[in-house]
Amino acid sequence: MPRRKVIPLLDCYTIYVNPALGSSVIPLGSFLNQNPDIDRLVCSAFIFAPPGKTCGFSPTVPRRLLLLRRASTDPAFPDSWELPGGLADEDDPTILHSLAREVSEKTNLQMCRVIREVGADTRWTTEDDNDGNLEEYRWVERSFQIEVVEIPGSASEQVFDPESIAEFLGSIPIHVDPTEHQEHVWAREDDIRKFLNTGEGRQIVPKEQAVKMMQAFALSRAPFWKHGDGV
After folding, report:
1. DSSP letter string, 153-171
2. Minimal CA–CA distance to 177: which of 79, 100, 69?
3. Do 128 and 29 meet the contact criterion of CB atoms below 8 Å apart?
4. Percent of the chain with pLDDT over 70
5. Which of 83, 154, 144 lies closest to 116 in space, CA to CA?
6. pTM of the prediction?
7. 75-to-20, 107, 128, 201 alpha-carbon distances in Å
8. Is 134 helix (H, G, I), strand (E, B) or coil?
9. Spatial CA neighbour of 103 closest among 22, 174, 170
10. pLDDT of 163-211, one tens digit each?
C-alpha cells in the first residue's frame, strides 16, 4: 500500500498529499522534461468552505468556493474572476510547493492538504515580445482541491445557518495583493452554473475554468482521502 506523501514547507508546518498525486511531487524542471510540449506551468487551487463534504448537501447553506477578482488594471482580463494560483517556479522544490506559495501570496492562506487533482489540463499559447522578437510560449494549468490551515477540517462537522455561515466566512483571514486582485468572494455552485448557462453574473476567465469549478463542486460531495489513509 503506498505511503502518504508528506512535504515539509518552510520548516514550520506540513502539507499532506494524497498518495495518488505522487507524480506532482516533482520539481518544475522534471515536469517540463517529461512534457516537452509545455513551456510554462500554472497551478490553481480549489478552496472550499466549509471543507468537508456534508455541508454541500444543505440547500439553505451550500458550500462556497473561493474566487479572486482581478485588478481593474490587469492587462489581460480586468475585473474577471478566477481561482487562486499562479506560475510554478524552478526555485520551488516541487510543483505542489509552487501551489502552496502561490496560494499564500494570493490569499495569505497556508495550504496544509492536497486532496485531488480536478479536471483535465487547460492549455493555451501566448506570444511575448522579447526585444522585438515574438516568442511563443505553450502553457498548461493544473488545478487541485486543497485545504488550508485557516479553515479547520472540524468545520465540516458544524451545522450552519445563513447567519452563522456568513460569520464563519468573514472570520477567514484572506488578504489579497491589490496590485493583482481587488477583492475575493465565496461563490456558490449556483453562481458558477448561472455564468455557464447565461453568461450573466461574475465573469470567469477562461470559461474552461468555470467548467472545472462545476466539476470540483461535484467531486467535493464525494468521499476523499484522509490524513491517515495509506500509512
Report:
1. GGGGGS---HHHHHHHHHT
2. 69
3. no
4. 83
5. 144
6. 0.87
7. 37, 21, 13, 21
8. strand
9. 174
10. 888 898 999 999 999 999 999 999 999 999 999 998 888 899 888 899 9
What string of DSSP letters covers 18-78? -GGGGGGSS-HHHHHHH-TT-SEEEEEEEEEES-SSGGGG-SSS--EEEEEEEPTT-SSST
Whether omega before 173 lies within 30 degrees of 0, making that bond cis, reads no
List residues bridging with 134 in a β-sheet: 129
Residues in the chain: 231
The Cα–Cα gap between 215 and 203 comes to: 18
Amino acid at 94: T
Dihedral, 196, 201, 207, 209 alpha carbons, nearest 10: -100
Beta carbons within 10 angstroms of residue 163's beta carbon:
9
- Name the phi and psi angles at 104, rounded to 5: -65, -45
